[in-house]
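Continuing the series of single-chain predictions for the mutant panel. This is the parent chain; the variants come on the following pages.
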Amino acid sequence: MSSSVKKTIKLVKGCMANDRSAQEGLYKQFYADMLRLCLRYLKTNDLAKEALNHGFLKVFQNIDSFNDEKGGLGAWIGTIMIRTCIDLSRKELKFTTDIDEAGITENIFVSPAVLDKLYAEDLISMIRLLPYATQMVFNLSVIDGYTHKEISEQLNITESTSRWHLSEGKKQLRVLLEPKGAGNDFSTESNKGKR
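Parent structure:
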């Protein structure tokens, strides 16, 4: 067993015993990753920090339900953070309900070369430019791997609404990425053979 796994087990046991130093250690260990996750889902840094703190409170209150056989601690905490972000943002979400399913395009191509040139902060900034409901669906689907069925259950929307928002998010991000790619020498499918 690696030392990081032993440390995590010790922190979990300490948190179960309400040991403040163990709670602080767990918070410090996962703070950066969970803050980045919250920043992806929420419109402002203040909301993201509020979700982070609410999420960690839920983690400490429910640490005894963590089961390492079902997955890692980081994934378990991440799920709690995502649900906390959704709960915090429910009043802000406005979903389009009149959807023409013929207009949904699942596979909009964005060149991997364009994505490779962007930094994570740039991508987060671009995702934050999407309408809030579209941003939420995009994050759940593309970043965190939720299915449209799971998204519809989490957000109380239909699967077709989820698909529409994902398609819309991809279209809007492509528009945001194209000007950046054209002016910054990013390679695309159309100019691969021209170099």
